[in-house]
Design a protein that fits this description.
Elements: E1 15-23, E2 33-37, E3 55-58, E4 82-87, E5 95-100, H1 165-173, E6 195-196, H2 209-212, E7 225-226, E8 249-253, E9 259-263, E10 270-274, E11 280-283, E12 289-292, E13 470-473, E14 491-494
Parallel strand pairs: 3-5
Antiparallel strand pairs: 1-2, 1-4, 2-3, 4-5, 6-7, 8-9, 9-10, 10-11, 11-12, 13-14
Length: 496
């Protein structure tokens, strides 16, 4: 009777092999690779072509379920990779890959013979001829990783990371500067380095203590700057952290240049993720985070977003900012609120229109100021009010106008004071009506006095009367009004 156990893999022994991957374009897309095995296959393509090599299954770790799209698939093995495995059959047609073997390649890929990446512009096998997107391997990569150095990523080899193109690019593109010169709020920012921060307005024509009392002695606030944190350094005193130390920095690097680092270097523990364009996110050893996006950024939150910042926040935007808020916009500021606008400021309240009629829907603006209100306007003030203006002043109002004052009123003017009213003109003082009556009434005595001559002229009848004594006095002679001859006395008394 046949022993059924002899059909189980391993009961008749394992045959081990070491080989080189020459093809990974698996038609079944299972992550299989074609391997040329030392001692089993010739290096001559004439003896056995790459296309005639058996497909090898790749063993995944226990952290990878390898089914139903789950896990890390396909396996990341490239042409030129050295691997170790075994055959699960006695005919050596069912290879299993257990792992890869890193080393130090002495030469680049030779596409003319086996045990090499067969791809290349002058590949001997026509099916593999042409310029591959990545490779052939081994070879000089865009990351500056070349032949003659360990297969371990430069980023994982301490000071060798300084030669990695991604780190070189980060240092070159870092938004930074040498110690910046002190700039005033209106100085050209291009004269300094670093990223500028906003400054408070300096109000010179109003009594604004908060704006003028910045530092000892007051005056305009000096502009501040901040800069992008340094990439990892190569010396122990580098900031913000020391260089990664081999073998503590665990690096994943893809063919196109995507990078993930889990750095456990003592004193330099960090997490890093970078796109090949240079966009990256880094968690620094002290818990700080740096995010740099080399192009556009899109963030969509379907639900609610909550942000809490315990310290300060600086935002510098070189372009325009547009905000569309379809609900209410509520700001509560427990300290001071400063705005500094270099050009124009335009506000429209009630911009919403009726969807049916297309007419504007009026909107209100209310302000309540419990303290003082001051303003200084360098040029003209123009305003238009569609309806009434009501002002109630508890104290006094003082206006000083260096030029002229013109008031045009279509309707009546009513001025009422509960106390005295004084009007003074340095030169002429005139009031008249185009038509109608001019009336003057005094609750007690009415005094009319002229510093020089006084003329009263009526184009019609002049009626002058008094309830009691009517007296006309003059320092000189008084004409009688008939003969134009002076009277004998300087007074005329007219009885009612």
């Amino acid at each position: 009777m046949e022993d059924i156990h002899s059909h189980f893999m391993g009961h008749d022994g394992f045959t081990w092999f070491v080989g080189v991957v020459e093809d990974r374009i698996d038609p079944l897309q299972l992550g299989r690779v074609r391997i040329r095995c030392l001692g089993f296959h010739s290096e001559s393509y004439d003896d056995i072509a790459t296309a005639d090599l058996p497909w090898a299954h790749v063993m995944h770790p226990v952290t990878d379920p390898s089914m139903q799209g789950l896990g890390n698939t396909p396996s990341f093995i490239t042409e030129g990779s050295w691997i170790v495995g075994f055959f699960r059959d006695n005919e050596f047609q069912q290879p299993i890959v257990m792992g890869t073997l890193p080393g130090i390649p002495d030469n680049g890929a030779n596409s003319g013979k086996g045990f090499n990446d067969p791809r290349g512009a002058r590949a001997k096998q026509k099916d593999y001829a042409g310029k591959p997107t990545y490779g052939p391997y081994p070879g000089d990569r865009e990351s500056n990783h070349g032949v003659g150095e360990p297969d371990t990523s430069k980023l994982a080899r301490g000071k060798a990371s300084e030669g990695h193109s991604a780190l070189i690019r980060r240092r070159k593109n870092r938004l930074r500067g040498d110690p910046v010169s002190e700039l005033g709020p209106d100085d050209d920012v291009s004269e300094a380095s670093g990223i500028p921060t906003a400054t408070k307005p300096f109000l010179t024509n109003t009594n604004d203590v908060d704006s003028t009392n910045f530092a000892a002695g007051g005056g305009p606030e000096k502009r501040g700057f901040w800069e992008e944190p340094n990439p990892k350094g190569v010396t122990e005193n580098s900031r913000p952290y020391i260089s990664g130390v081999y073998p503590y920095n665990h690096v994943f690097e893809s063919e196109s240049g995507h990078i993930t680092e889990i750095d456990d270097s003592p004193g330099a523990e960090r997490l890093y993720r970078e796109h090949q364009t240079g966009t990256f996110e880094e968690l620094l050893p002290d818990g700080s985070r740096t995010i740099k996006i080399m192009k556009d950024n899109y963030e969509i939150v379907i639900g609610q977003e909550n942000i809490y910042i315990k310290g300060a926040q600086n935002i510098t935007i070189e372009g325009s900012v547009r905000e569309l808020i379809k609900g209410d916009y509520i700001q509560e500021i427990e300290g001071n609120f400063f705005q500094k606008i270099h050009k124009n400021h335009r506000i429209k309240v009630g911009a919403k229109k009726d969807p049916i009629t297309g007419e504007g829907i009026p909107g209100n603006r209310e302000e309540e100021i419990t303290g003082n209100f001051g303003y200084s306007i360098g040029q003209s003030v123009r305003g238009w009010t569609g309806e009434d203006v009501d002002n109630f002043i508890v104290g006094k109002e003082t206006r000083t106008i260096n030029g002229t004052l013109a008031i045009n009123v279509v309707g009546d003017i009513n001025v009422t004071t509960l106390s005295s009213m004084v009007q003074t003109a340095k030169t002429d003082f005139a009031f008249s009506t185009v038509s109608g009556i001019v009336s003057m009434k005094s609750g007690s005595t009415l005094n009319i006095k002229s510093g020089a001559a006084m003329t009263i002229f009526a184009e019609g009848t002049l009626d002058s009367s008094a309830k009691t004594v009517h007296t006309i006095r003059s320092g000189g002679a008084i004409p009688d009004g008939k003969t134009n001859t002076p009277t004998a006395t300087n007074s005329v008394q007219i009885n009612p």
